[in-house]
Amino acid sequence: MAAVSYRKDMDVPPPWGLGGECLVGMVRHRSASDLPCGLARVPGLSLVVGARYDRSPVGPYLELAVGEPARSGVRVGMCVTTMVVTTADARHAGRSKWGMPKVLGDLTWDNDGETRVLRWDERGLVLRATPVGPPLPILVPFRSLQRRGDGLVSATASLRGLARLARVDVEVAEIDPLAWLEGRHVGAVVGSARLAMGEASLLSGLRTPRWSQRPAPDPALLSGPSTGRLAQR
Question: 28: domain range?
């Protein structure tokens, strides 16, 4: 069994606070991939998000994520269907605590004047955001819906910071499963960003969530780190 890097700070219980800078694009197109079992699609915009976290319980790392609107019963939220990070600790924490389908990958972040560029080298995907408006304070609460090793889980979260309206461009190969992200989108660059992730709770039909103190291990973590897209089932 391959060894997995593990930081003591991963024992810190949620809520977790992460700080840095985020790029957010709102995508009208819909993915053709299936959502995890137990979740259904709902109308709404999908999101492509790039983040440079300077502060987190597992240290600095880069992240790229794709979220799609979904529901479990009457609970509506965002389901992350693709997520890549640059450290094994971030991968382990995201999968074991919140059921995020995190994989390891090579990401690079560049500043070109006010433009921010995040590249996912293995996939040839480029996320570019150019702000066009003044900074305004925001506070955006949302709900995460994921399938963890022990079942469907829900977690409340919020993003706050100084947001500037932005042109967000995504470049990706036509044959890539993420080709539906290609094009220009409306979005934002969020500076002084702070993401707060609450504890994930198990969902059992429409009953009150049962708070999970000891999440079941994710099978993907037992085989060590991986790269590329890993479908969440």
Answer: 13-207
pLDDT, one tens digit per residue, over 174-200 is: 999 999 999 999 999 999 999 999 999
- Which residue's entry shows tokens 């500043």? 111
Average pLDDT over residues 145-168: 97
Q: How many domains does the chain have?
A: 1
Q: Token digits for 201?
A: 């709770």
Backbone angles phi, psi at 10, to 5 degrees: -70, -15
CATH of the domain at 200: 2.40.400.10
Look at residue 3 and tell me if it is in a domain: no
Distance CA 201, CA 94 (A): 14
In a domain, 214, yes or no: no
- Strands (DSSP E) contained in 5-150 are 16-27, 40-41, 46-55, 61-72, 75-85, 102-104, 107-112, 115-120, 125-131, 136-148
DSSP letters of 115-159?
Answer: EEEEEEGGGTEEEEEEE-S--EEEEEEEEEEEEETTEEEEEEEEE
CB-CB contact of 233 with 130 (8 Å): no
Whether residue 116 contacts residue 96, with contact meaning beta carbons closer than 8 Å, is answered with no
How large is the average pLDDT for residues 115-123? 97
- The structure tokens listed for 46 are 């999908």
Residue 231 lies in a domain: no
Q: Has this prediction a pTM greater than 0.90?
A: no
What does the pLDDT look like over 64-113, one tens digit per residue? Answer: 999 999 999 999 999 999 999 999 999 999 999 999 999 999 999 999 99
Residue 6 lies in a domain: no
Scan for tokens 């079992």, then name that residue. Answer: 37
